[in-house]
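note to self — DONT lose this again. spent like an hour looking for the file last time. sequence + predicted structure for the chain T wanted, 425 res
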Amino acid sequence: MEPALTRRVGPPDGGYGWFVVLATFLVFGLTFGVIKSFGVFYVEIHRYFATTATGTSWITSISVATIHIGAPVGTAMTACVGHRAVVMLGGLLSSVGMVAGAYAQNLLQLYITVGFLTGFGYALTWTPTVAMLGCYFEKRRPMANALASAGECIITFLFTPFFQLLVNEYSWRGAMLVLGAVQLNLCVCGALLRPLSDLTEKRPAEGDSLQLEGMSQPHTDPQETSSRPKNLRSKVLHYVDYTLIGNPHFMVYSMFGVFAALGFFAPALFLVPYARSQGIEEYQAAALMSISAALDLSGRLLFGWVANLRLVKTINQLTMTVVLLGVVLLLCPLATTFTQLAAFSATYGLVFGATVAIHITVLAEVVGVNRLGSALGFFMLIRSSGGLLGPPIAGEMLHVLLHVPTPPIAQDFKKTKTFNQFMME
């Protein structure tokens, strides 16, 4: 019995793990990829309900915030019923929310359906899938994370013009119905998540060993290592590791997540309508997101590979890419033509991909892979405030910085075709 326990003492770093990479690839695409492509719907919804830029942006904000707030719920539910069931339930909720949103009669109903219900479904799919990916890989974890997260940019690249075509052919309501059907593929992703039951037992001498019937469980003392919790309450408590709140390194990294989330989703949401307001044709405006997604993919793969080489510390690499990302975003208002906006989209996509490719890897290094499941949940929860407030703040800044009037007084401004006047046509 002893040789069987010592033969495999770590993640497989391959094998069936590549199917988990495929599942995570699709989950990234069908969650955050859809969110980034939602700018096409944004224009149509804004016109249909004759609302403000800020009012429409709350749909995405609520969805993003719900993903983050619901992450710990997904983690705890995984401890109760397993990864497959939770992810498949999340896929079903995502589909139901999107289909229900197609029949919404006002913005409040869109907030509840597309914002809350679909967002909560995303939370139940994304967090358990990413946590399991981290448990299947160790030496190749940076590259596995980069490949999996590439799903976000590939799906964005494909879905943005696809959504525009659906909207033109079937209106935004019909396009949402099709999207709801597509999101059922998240249930297939859940079916691919096979538990690592053969890595459940390990030698007690290895304090950082993985026990993966219940995913990553923290090892705080020898007694806990030698005897696994038997009752359900203890199992859930091991998933929801509240001691992370007292970890200063984790809390500092979580604050980085808050400020990053403030700006992560706003460019994807407002780039298409901003381009349209500059007189750019609708398919060219949608192509900007595809350009960004293509370079996003390149950035994730390239910098994920660089991180895998361990030439520099991943935390230092992340710091450099975040600084570059801020500089690129500051240059966005200078772009007014399609060529300039295409250059901005390409540069933004490349640096954004470089950042996203390694931020989960850095989190695993900060807390340890044995606590990654709980850390992801709390990290997303803390980051939720940034995701909730980012798009509305960006919408208000459009009004202030671009001198955009609100709809009730739009008729008083006849001289200039401003952003909001374009959106209200």
